[in-house]
Design goal:
Blueprint (H helix, E strand, L loop, with lengths): L9 E9 L4 E8 L11 E2 L3 E3 L1 H20 L11
Antiparallel strand pairs: 1-2, 2-3, 2-4
Length: about 80
């Protein structure tokens, strides 16, 4: 991964359906500095996505996992959306 990209490790999340609006709500918990404990994690805003976006996110995460599990290559591998 490129050294100039700031990374914030995910320490947890909240996710669930919002049937009234036909969306999926997602909030990530993340660490903002190396010495931060999981109990002190920051929380992102609540994000909303359609069911189709949720399926696409699942597909892209699975594809990224397959690349990591099947390759020794190092690189950013980051996709922009």
């Amino acid at each position: 991964m490129a050294n100039n990209i700031s990374l914030f490790p995910v320490s947890g999340w909240q996710i669930g359906p919002v049937p009234l609006h036909d969306i999926i709500a997602l909030k990530l918990h993340f660490l903002s500095h190396p010495l931060q404990k999981n109990e002190e994690a920051q929380e992102s805003q609540m994000f909303a996505m359609t069911p189709a976006q949720g399926r696409e996110l699942i597909d892209r995460i699975q594809a990224a996992i397959e690349v990591l599990e099947n390759s020794d290559a190092q690189g950013s591998g980051l996709e922009r959306h």
